[in-house]
Amino acid sequence: MGAATADCGTVQEPLTLTLTDVTPAAGATLANQEIIESFTIVGKLLKIDPTLAQGATHSAGHASPLPIPWTYTPSGSDTVYTSAPITWEKVGHVELDPPGLLVLSDGCVSILPTPTFSYDVTAP
Fold it and tell me: Domains of the chain, with CATH numbers?
């Protein structure tokens, strides 16, 4: 594969996917019960496994259920991902990072933004 382009990343230069409608929004604070995470990948119809890793500042422990089940729904040229309801092990900060490089069926390499989610949870 050659150099990265605006539409196709490489292992050395992965294309960061554009996300919209990320919920909970970055910096949000919400009660720690039945939290639904979601995001839309813009301009790509992708079926990925968004197994996100705890980031450096994550302090809310493990999610329940674990692993977090996700559904995906094509919407025009976009893909919408929605988690099952989540409760974190304890109150604190949630920071979830992408699972690593995503090698797509066309050979292009992409990655989700880091962090993908960043919010705080309080007692329900």
Answer: 15-122 (2.60.40)
